[in-house]
């Protein structure tokens, strides 16, 4: 994996890694979860970019998306709300409020 070239800057690499962790289908990150291997700028399809996949034509629930991201980050941080809030770059009380709003618990 260390031999793989990266066309962007370190910040873009960090964002791509965070995206891959959040959106991966299992508990272990697979090669398929990484962005496509290209030297060119990522393609933008239906409003998508390197961080957000292409958007469905029939719409998207922002509430469901936010809930899913919070669930994934809580799982990633093993229920540690302080670490999850830091990862999401929001104050702890904001994350706690949203967890309560969506009926999420530490182990959800």
UniProtKB/TrEMBL annotation:
Molecular functions per Gene Ontology: ATP binding; sequence-specific DNA binding
Domain of life: Bacteria
SUPFAM superfamilies attached to this UniProt entry: Homeodomain-like
Start and end residues of each Sigma-54 factor interaction domain: 1-22
Protein's GO biological process: regulation of DNA-templated transcription
UniProt entry keywords in alphabetical sequence: ATP-binding, Nucleotide-binding, Transcription, Transcription regulation
PANTHER family (alphabetical): ALGINATE BIOSYNTHESIS TRANSCRIPTIONAL REGULATORY PROTEIN ALGB, TRANSCRIPTIONAL REGULATORY PROTEIN
Protein name: Sigma-54 factor interaction domain-containing protein
Species for this entry: Nannocystis pusilla
